[in-house]
Each structure stands twice: as structure tokens, then as C-alpha cells.
Amino acid sequence: HNNYPADGTEQMGKAAASFIGAKKDVVRSDDPNDHAEFGVVDPEDETAAKDTRGRRVTIKDASGTALVDVIIGKDLPDREGFKFLRYPGENRVYAAQIDPQVSTQFTDWIEDDLLHMESDDIVAVMSNSYSVVETTDPDTGQPMASLENDQPFYFEQVETGEFENDGSPKLEWNLAAPPVFGPDGKRIDPEVYAQMAASVPEGEAPLPPLPEAEAPPEGKELNPTKVKQIVGAADRMKIVGVRPQPQQLSALDLLSKGFFVGGEPPAQRLFGNEGEVRLYAKDGVVYTLYFGEVTYAAGEALTAGNGEAEDEQAGDTGGEDGGESDANRQANRYMFVAVGYDPRRDENAGEPPTEGELRGAQRAEALAERFNRWYYVIPDSSFTQVHKVPDDFWRDLKAE
């Protein structure tokens, strides 16, 4: 799976013990022509048929030394619990018994906590469910993109005046205006700013207006549960596949996954085909989740991208050649994760660090290193929980 780091410690232990302890005294063939029949062709050999390629398992210790490196093939038809095995670079094929408790599912090997965030640490959310519409410039014939439904909603937690059982102030999500910070890094008070704007001498350029909070439609009010759903779903975010990012990201590679670069230098920025969500943590860490294109791939085409184009094509032609159509296939979606640090939002900025604990800037740097190497594929169930359109945020105004 493109050398995606395995975080499933229990699975690692089971797998290493199973493979290291497997007896390889049953030799089934030394003929490389048999590799396809036994399903032990190198999985990276794209010239081979998909059903002849095996699954390569490599387990390394902390120093990088390979403990296990083997290609697992098909089940033996005459011996339950046995599989064909081959070492990469060798012709000999063995039959060996593999512990049935060792999962070969990608999702069993990776860490469940993708974003490394706690929902209680998120103090602000920005949700924008725009869509990128691809068109062609009628004058130049060049491809171009525009945004539809570009309507960002910004929410902050505010004190309700009530208290929790532990005596701490009770917090609730509320519509708010995105904050504007002054040169000193402090948040500008709207009332003070209004006074400053009113006192600008005649003839001088007026101060630009501060952004305002979204106003609910008539007869509606914010449903804070929907904001909680975004935060909770992000905290529980699961992935079902990964794709490595190239060392030098290009607009073409981003486009293939449903991501676009817009704006003019130096103000260029990333856009997702189906919008974005930004989560602000109290230590200044800022997560931005961009939602890209849908994929209907399955199996290793889904988890690692192996043969993805062929798998997608099979879905597109479903019904003509007996394949499964998109309507009957599981929809998943590409996600791009960006992490930054905003010291103006760090409630502990300037305080001495706690031993053994990553502070906001260091935590953001570690997370960015983790996320900057991968595109992620998330299930549609996760996407629909995090992605909200404007109407999702409103409920009927409660009668007083």
C-alpha cells in the first residue's frame, strides 16, 4: 500500500509471528511459469493480470531491518488454511499455513485516529460546501473553473451562562463573524473598530468593513447539533485508502483527484471539488479538509490505487459487460488534509512548554509532515457527516 505506515501494533505482532513461524518445507514449484497460477506474481507487475498478482507483505523493525518480506498468493485448493508463498526475486513457491487471525484488510493495519484531534479541543469551525464547476473559456478554449454556492459559515463556541456538572462553563456552538486580528496579533473588537471607522477624517480612505456572521433565514435559527456532527465526524474520521503524493505536487496530479489551485500568485490557494471544512484547535493548530472527486474503486484498487483506472472503467461499463454499475458500487471520496499553525489562536502561546508534550507549533509541524505525503480516500458515510450544505444548519425557530 505505497509504504503507508502501519499503526496497528496488534496486527503487526500477529503478522510477524505468523510469517516468521510459518514452516516453508512444502515446495510446490520452482518454475516461474507457475507464478500466475499460484497468484504469486509481484503485485507491482502491471503487465500481469490482476487475479495472478499476490499481496506483498513487508514488516520492518524500528531500525528499518526487514523482518518479513513475502508475496502471499492464492489458497491451496486441497489444504485448508494454507496459502502459496514466494520470496520477491526468487522462483521457488512454497505452501505454508498462515494464521487465519492475521487480517489482510488495509483498514485493520492503520491507526483509527487519522487527524490526531480531540473534539473538545476544537473551538471554531468554518464550513464551505462550494462546488468547483469546470468549463472552457469561450475566447481562448482553455479549461477554467469557477465556484458555485461559495458561502462560508463560521462558528465559535460561546458560553451559555450555564454550568456543567464539574462547574465549568457550558459551551454551545454559535454563528459568528470570522475574526480579524490587528498588527499586535490580538482580535479586533467590532465596537472599537466601528468607533475607529466613524472617526476617520473626511477625505481619507474609509476603513474596510469587518466580516459579518451569516444571518439565519426568516423563521429559522442555527441547529448547533449540525456543527457538533462536523466536529465529531472529523474526530472519528476513517480512511479506506491512500494514494502517495508526488514529491513535487502538480496541478495535473491534484486535478486527477478533484483538487484545484486557484487565484493569482502569491495568493494562490487550494480548492476541493466539493468544498472544504476548517477546524481550529485551541492550541493554534488549524486543520483544513478538502473534499475531492468520487471513486468507485474496490479492493486494492480502492485501498492502494492498484489498477484503479481499470476498476473504474469496469464500473462505467457495468450493465454492458456484466460488470457492476456505479449505482450499485460503494462511493468513496478523495480528501486532502492540510495542517497549519496560527499563534493568534493558541491559548498557550508564549507560555513555557510542558515536558513530553508537543505544543501547538510543534504539533502542527508533526501533523503536516504526516499529511503532506498522502491523498486519503474516505467512505461516503464520513463525507456526508462532515460536509454540510447551508440548509443543513437551520431549524425552525422555537416558539417562545
H/E series, N to C?
A: HEHEEEEEEEEEHEHEHEEEEHHEHEHE
What's the number of structural domains?
3
- As residue ranges, the low-confidence spans are none
In what range is the share of β-strand residues?
25-35%
Please give the radius of gyration in angstroms: 26 Å
Q: What is the molecular shape?
A: elongated
Structure in words:
There is one protein chain. The chain has 400 residues and is an alpha+beta fold. It has three domains: 9-108, no CATH class; 119-175 and 217-296 and 331-396, no CATH class; 177-212, no CATH class. 19% of the residues lie in helices and 31% in strands. β13 (259-262) and β14 (269-272) form a beta hairpin. The longest helix has 13 residues, at 9-21. The radius of gyration is 26 Å and the shape is elongated. It starts with 8 loop residues before the first helix and ends with a strand. The model has no long low-confidence stretch (mean pLDDT 84).
